[in-house]
Design a protein that fits this description.
The structure is a homodimer of 245-residue chains. The first copy, chain A, is of the alpha/beta class. Chain A is built from seven helices and 13 strands. Chains A, B: One of its GO terms (biological process) is methylation.
Chain lengths: 245, 245
């Protein structure tokens, strides 16, 4: 059986990887991933064959992984965070569904700590209640769909986790998101922005929805916006679960 | 400085814990948690003082943890999944905010693999696009709030992850959720139900939204309901991210 691991490596430091993720890498002949992620785990893959390439090469990367696995190699495809959240798990299964027979492969998805959960841990406890996760990238999703989801998130008083909040070519969506959410949420709603969570260059900003457009946000940032009960205490953002204390 | 870890232990098996979680437990004098979770990690805590108690004792448990830490003990409070998602991270910070001085404590939140992410990995790749996480427990949240959020999740064509879908005293909310989502989603929408993910008694059901009321769901289950593009292939549920393949 052709063995293919799709491995969520968590935020990027060894400490926040799972034992399963490390074991999958150790068990593999070939490791495949985006350059940046391969760099994060390079101490774990010494001596193994590595296939890495740049952004937006996801389809090529997954096709190559499946092809190499079909030749009898044990292959790991790595994603940062959780491989099942905007990661490579879906694409691997989509390609096998379309071009191969699913029964020829033993695909194991290894879950990991998401960027949202890592960022939340650094910020305190903002995700203690119902939340939505939305990517602001319009590369694979129409902006109208994203915009509708932001409205729904606002109407539902959800905590909001934003992935891909900004890139060099998409600078305005974060401001549009702020405008939409201000229709439903107070400008005082706490906002936390974590860049490069648990990596050497980690940085944290604690602000409010009203001030979000004045914050530094880039493609390495995760943005968490509270619900109507979220508050800030010192360096922490806290969303009450509802207990009487 | 009084040291307090709030540790997400992931789904419950050692392999899906992070190194940070294991290190925090090893570094602690006292481990505190709900009986079921303490049982899951008992091989890691031999020889340490353990304080465990039953469901709905969360406030007592956290107050005791903080009190023990304030006396100079290093204490770990454990939650299953991620401590920051319906876990103990918020309550610990809330109680310290209210009754102590935050600056007297070194609180470290250790993120973990959530029940949603574990279940998704077992089901294939259902969470590959924007999703909401909703708890159906009305113990701490009014049903009207939950109901509104389910409507918003439906209107936004989000993938939906349901925590606490059913208990002995709350048997109807999962059926109400089905009814509401059927106003927005097709009855053919794939549904995956994972019980006790990655534990010895793990079980998996793959079904559809139209059939959800006929599925076995209990308090140990996580339910994932797809978006309009989600499909089933064999034993996998796949939500396309939008790549052309």
């Amino acid at each position: 059986m052709n063995k293919l691991y799709v491995v969520g490596i968590g935020p990027g430091n060894r400490e926040n990887m799972t034992f399963s993720a490390v074991n999958a890498l150790k068990d593999s002949d070939i490791i495949i991933g985006y350059n940046t992620y391969i760099d994060l785990i390079k101490d774990l893959i010494g001596g193994k064959q590595v296939v890495s390439n740049g952004m937006r090469k996801e389809v090529d990367r997954c096709k190559e992984a499946i092809e190499l696995a079909s030749k009898g190699n044990t292959v790991s495809v790595v994603s940062s965070g959780d491989a099942g959240v905007y990661g490579m798990a879906g694409l691997i299964l989509e390609i096998i569904s379309k071009e191969y027979s699913m029964s020829d492969f033993d695909v194991q998805i290894i879950p990991g700590v998401t960027a949202g959960n890592s960022s939340a841990a650094i910020l305190g406890a903002p995700l203690m209640h119902d939340y939505v996760t939305i990517s602001l990238s319009d590369w694979l999703t129409k902006w109208e769909t994203i915009e509708n989801r932001i409205h729904c998130a606002g109407k539902g008083d959800f905590i909001v986790v934003l992935y891909n909040p900004k890139s060099k070519s998409r600078t305005e969506y974060i401001n549009k998101t702020q405008e939409i959410l201000l229709q439903y949420k107070s400008p005082d709603t706490p906002v936390g922005i974590v860049r490069s969570a648990f990596r050497e260059d980690q940085s944290v900003q604690i602000s409010t929805l009203g001030e979000l457009s004045n914050c530094d946000v880039d493609m390495f940032s995760t943005v968490i916006i509270g619900n109507s009960k979220t508050y800030i205490n010192g360096k922490y953002i806290i969303t009450p679960r509802g207990y009487s204390i």
